[in-house]
Each structure stands twice: as C-alpha cells, then as structure tokens.
Amino acid sequence: MAENRQLAELVGACRWIGARGWSPATGGNMSQRRDARSCYITESGLDKGHLDADDFLTVDIHTGAAQPGRRPSAETGLHTFLYRRFPEVGCVLHTHSVSATVLSRAEQGSALRLSGYEMQKSLTGQTDHREEVAIAVFDNSQDIPALVQRIARHDALTPLRYGFLTRGHGLTCWGRDVSEARRHLEGLEFLFECEWRRRLLEAR
Q1: Domains of the chain, CATH where assigned
Q2: Is the pTM for the entire model greater than 0.90?
Q3: What are the start-end ranges of the E strands in 9-157?
C-alpha cells in the first residue's frame, strides 16, 4: 500500500535507533509528515526497534485527532507542534539515549552549548567547528500542552534548530526528511557522548 512505501524509510530508521539502544523498552516516538494536515506517528507502548508500517497511525497536525481505537504516543503534541511551527520539517525523532538523558540533567542552564567538535558539521548549516551549537534544555513535564507552550515561547525568542533536550527524558530532533533527521540524530548523539566523556575527565 502507498502509505507503507512512504513509511519504509522511517521504519528503517526506527529499527536502526533500536539497534543502537537509543530507545530502550518502549521509550521514544517517531513521526513523519504525511501531508499538510497530518502525520504518521508511532503507536504507544511498542518496541521501536521492531516496528513495521502498520505500527504507525495517522494524526491530524492541527487538532491532534487520531485514528479511532488506536493510541498515539504520549508526546504526540510535541510532534504536531513542530510540524505546525516549522512547515519545512518532514520527520521528528524522539529518543532516550543514556548520553542525552545524563547530559540533560547535568546541564543546569537553559541550553547545552557545544563547540570545538568537528562533528558539529553533521548539522545542517554548521560549517565550522569553532562555532557554538546551543541545544535548548527544558524541564520535563507530563503536561504536554504546558511543555509545548514553554517551547513555543523559547522559540519565539531564540529559534530552535535541529532539536532540544528534555531533562531526565531525552532528545527530540528533526529534519526536512527522514534522512536529514537521522543524520541530525546521529550527529547530536555523537556530540553528546563526547561532551559527557569530556566532563567526566575534567571532573577527575
């Protein structure tokens, strides 16, 4: 079916994420823009490393309405917000890696600031390791609409790029398509692990 073909690349990315241990148990959620009004998103409670196309459901980007009888991931509101906010975004990936989760708690400021890493150039628009990459950090909340409001206020003042961290929770990142979102995820995860290890060495 047509939607299965559209989702094939995202399914592959989900299995790759699962194999790397970045979404343990049933954690994380992934989505792909379907059209101007809707997106595909992972159903709640599933192991993201063993998904197929039938494990995604359609959600209205503007109303949040999902297919009857199916339960989308708890953070669906974050995905739909990003699709509304950034019309160019075609894929959103939310993971729970150890590095992202630890750094999100270790960083006490409002952003994790990275510089000096060549891998920063894996992020679209970054051309020099000497530039600073700032990844916003938000306090975790089970109140997704309230969290969305905080993220929206931040973006209005300091535009978000690539992704953000939620304390004790993990990384949410995005791209124009699955390929770019996957590259941003891999690049950011590499940077997070480097930064985590650097901080450990400096603390000795």
Answers
A1: 2-203 (3.40.225.10)
A2: yes
A3: 29-33, 38-42, 56-60, 91-95, 111-114, 133-138
